[in-house]
Amino acid sequence: xxxxxxxxxxxxxxxxxxxxxxxxxxxxxxxxxxxxxxxxxxxxxxxxxxxxxxxxxxxxxxxxxxxxxxxxxxxxxxxxxxxxxxxxxxxxxxxxxxxxxxxxxxxxxxxxxxxxxxxxxxxxxxxxxxxxxxxxxxxxxxxxxxxxxxxxxxxxxxxxxxxxxxxxxxxxxxxxxxxxxxxxxxxxxxxxxxxxxxxxxxxxxxxxxxxxxxxxxxxxxxxxxxxxxxxxxxxxxxxxxxxxxxxxxxx
Length: 251
Description:
Blueprint: H1 7-18, H2 28-35, H3 39-48, H4 54-63, H5 79-98, H6 101-113, E1 116-121, H7 125-138, E2 143-146, H8 149-155, E3 163-168, H9 175-186, E4 190-195, H10 201-205, E5 208-211, H11 229-249
Parallel strand pairs: 1-2, 1-3, 3-4, 4-5
Helix pairs in contact: 1-3, 5-11, 6-11, 7-11, 8-9
């Protein structure tokens, strides 16, 4: 589980993400000089980000070398464009690595045994939930999506134990979704959460949580429009896995 970074550690992590392609070739001392931080700050930052240390982090980057974007084939790549591409690559790869196949299996079994799938989502997460709804319906599973705050709160009080609720929420703190999750918890309704925040209120309330990796980099810093790419990756894996299971079980 990742921990909150201090101001200095956050500065270092920003420096690393901006210069990610150079990091595998740097020693901890050289990085300390370039970023103007202490080596102990580097170690603390790595540990908070889930790595044993700086060397462990570099090994992680090098392990991805065979699957990373090859920029050498492009004569000129703007550094910001390169950063954008690598941000998306990192979100996809780390999200896949974070997924627990056991949780996916449990989620599929819950979905299979449910009479209805109820999707709750807000804002940009609604687009992912809408795609999920259509795919569930194409797979022959009854599914409905609710995005209106008042309907979400009301609907969550009218569910029964044969239903499964899937929450799609990037930060896991949307007020109406939290209220709905509490209602489901009290009524012992099965809940599955797709999120990028393992420390959220929704993660505490959900029965099963599928958690992705969200990059700190945002190219729209003045607006709350962070990428839902990790949520999309999780939703696709879950739906593909469910479709495969349904296909296998058909006579």
